[in-house]
Amino acid sequence: MGPMTSDFLRLEGELERGELRPFYLLVGQDDYLRRRAEGMIVEAALEPPERGLNLTVLSATEASAEEVAESVRVLPFMAKRRVVVVREAERFLTERALPEALQRYAEGPNPQGVLILSASGRCWPRRGQKEWLYDLTPSGRGEVLYWIRRFAAEKGMKISPGALALLRELVGDDLMALSNEVEKLALFKGEGGVVDEGDVQEVVADVRVASVFELVDAMEGGDLRRGLAVLEKIWVQGEPSPKILGAIAWRLRERIKREANPKLVEALRRLHEVDLRLKRRGGTGKFLLEELLLNPF
């Protein structure tokens, strides 16, 4: 597994064994994993009744490194530990090293304190940092699929390979959004169920799947008028571009599995280009999709 999952599982294993560090640096672009890791550490360090007086959440945009270090050195009140969580801590990592006050704390921490720095982005560890650095950076499609399966298992469900692929295509790689969609599926399916493609289509696919099928047929047949009409019909539903692109990509992949048509492979390649251009430019992808229709494959 890549760095995201291996570091998350390393943290999870340490906490399950009762190994609690006085200092954690959680880095990575995925907000969901960082928040989940924060919660795991807090749960391991403090019982719920202890958190009111012994848990402090700060923002590095408002607190200085000196204030953070001072806060975590305060003795706990009627608890074994005091926990300080600092979010938006990327400002403390701009020089690829910690500010002096935090570096001193890392080298001589409060044995009754737990400091958690949570930063969006990457961190390049220097000597002595690796043991408390947890890189939660997503590293590929395989790990996203791992998390979807895990979300489903945590709800007492299984998910079929087709449903797994469709859910990922429709929602993308945002783990918070994927977790929310699996929650909806759990309410719909119930514990012990197996989620199939039909369930995902009914619960998650706000883009009408039939309309996407029709759009792909129009693209394959080079029917510009029909394709533009279907695209407009989908667009007026107010769906975000990534979800529309994901639904089309999933449909193309399903067709390719059944028929090794070079035209479909080329369409999928060009759709990927549209997705990259959309991510670089931002905004909506309607004009980019219209451009794809104007150049039939």
Describe the structure.
The protein is an alpha/beta fold. Helices cover 57% and strands 10% of the residues. Strands 2-3-4-1-5 form a 5-stranded parallel sheet, with helices on both faces. It has a two-stranded parallel ribbon with strand order 6-7. Helix 5 links the parallel strand 3 and strand 4.
List the helices and strands and how they pair.
Blueprint (H helix, E strand, L loop, with lengths): L2 H14 L6 E5 L3 H15 L5 H4 E5 L5 H8 L9 E6 L12 H8 L5 E7 L13 E3 L5 H14 L3 E2 L1 H11 L3 H15 L4 E2 L1 H7 L5 H13 L2 H12 L5 H18 L3 H20 L4 H9 L3
Parallel strand pairs: 1-4, 1-5, 2-3, 3-4, 6-7
Summarize it.
It is built from 14 helices and 7 strands. The protein is of the alpha/beta class and 297 residues long.
